[in-house]
Amino acid sequence: MTVRLSKIIMCLCLAAFAFMVTFGNITDFGSNFAFVQHVLNMDTTFPGNKLMYRAITNESLWHVAYWFIILGEGLTFILFLIGAWHLWKARHATGAEFNKAKRFAVIGATMGFLVWFFGFMVVGGEWFAMWQSQTWNGQEAAFKFYVAIIGVLIYLNQPDGDLSR
Fold first, then answer.
1. Residue 42: per-residue pLDDT
2. What DSSP string runs through 101-157?
């Protein structure tokens, strides 16, 4: 039971994290929007770099991108919360049933990985050369987030057997 409760708690912690990020991005919209604006605009990358053709300078598209990020973070929160709830309901079930209950938590981890690895590392970091910016570079923070998610995902996916009676 200890391992099952541990997996539930870890999913709840990741849900709480994704909630706080989503909530922060909505309630501090301006400063976090500025981050997206500068990354997409590529205005703090190396001067004269050959990747500037990738820059997006349309404010409407900045808003679309930002809301898309917030949506991904919010979905991560909801999926982890649902996943933790399913795990909680199955905590006394057989190993096979508990393993089946991991579905939403796994989907939540995948969504979080998409947001912080694909969104921030691949799209922001490489496509928009965020790595070149000393001011608007979120790669280090994103790395911490997706590694934590991967760690929980690996632990969560360790098969659970039947409980000892």
1. 95
2. TTHHHHHHHHHHHIIIIIIIIIIIIIIT-GGG-SSS--HHHHHHHHHHHHHHHHHHT
pLDDT tens digits, one per residue of 76-91: 999 999 999 999 999 9
Phi-psi region of 56 (alpha: psi -120 to 50; beta: other; left: phi over 0): beta
Residue 112, both tokens: 């979080």
92: number of Cβ within 10 Å: 11
Contact 132, 118 (CB under 8 A): no
Q: Among residues 101, 106, 102, 120, which one has the least CA distance to residue 149?
A: 106
Residue 103 structure tokens: 């579905």
Say if pTM beats, i.e. exceeds, 0.85. yes
Return all residues near 61 (Cβ < 8 A) that are at least 6 apart.
Answer: 40
Q: Which two tokens stand for residue 152?
A: 């929980």
Contacts of residue 75, defined as CB under 8 A and 6 or more positions apart, other chains included, come to 108, 111
Q: How far apart are CA 122 and CA 158, in angstroms?
A: 28
